User: What shape does this take?
Amino acid sequence: MLLAIIFDMDGLMVDTEILYWEVLNEIVAGYGKKEIGETVMIKMMGRSPLDSMRVFVEELRLPVTAEDILQQRDALMERKLRNGVEPMKGLHEIIAAFSGKVKLAIATSSCRLFLDIIVDQLGIREKFTVFQTSEGVSRGKPDPEIFLQTIAKLGVKPEECVVLEDSVNGVAAASRAGCYVIAVPSQYSRNQDFSLANYVAGDLIEAREHILKLGPAGLSLR
Assistant: This one.
């Protein structure tokens, strides 16, 4: 029975990946490095902020710690986010379709500050029951910890949840948590291997239609 839908945030609800790309390229330019490649971005996607920066520092061979880079990145990202964000196609429609019918949650590898900025700019805070960020999560995606914590807070079982994810690390984490996983690839993740997903949707509108086709409210997923 479907009792909850869990949303990833970056690249799924809002196109923040382009902002991260801009910020990280600003940072590497300061160290005399060339623009980061798509391969590096893919390795970083979905991971906890610090894990992501560890990958970044290692891949670019930067003479600085991951902690220092994270501090630089967050300061630049906060300014960009406060300038405004746009919802991904179909976001408001899928929220409207299931709000009040099942519990809605956000499970993001971003920090709480970024989540607060985004949900308030989008005006969707009251639609969600649980907001789970990287704070309090010791192992980032692809480990299932973030989803298991979210599920526990929702008071449901993994098999009663649909997870919407845009990255291979997020899909792996949700699958390992025992959830029904719908991948909604972004322009940055479309070439990733989503074989662990139960379904791959072109956008959130298609994802909404797929969930509705699974059955009525209270649908059976297994």
Q: What stands out?
A: The chain has two domains: 4-15+86-213, 17-82. The mean pLDDT is 91. The first helix runs from residue 17 to 30. The CA atoms of residues 84 and 137 lie 27 Å apart.
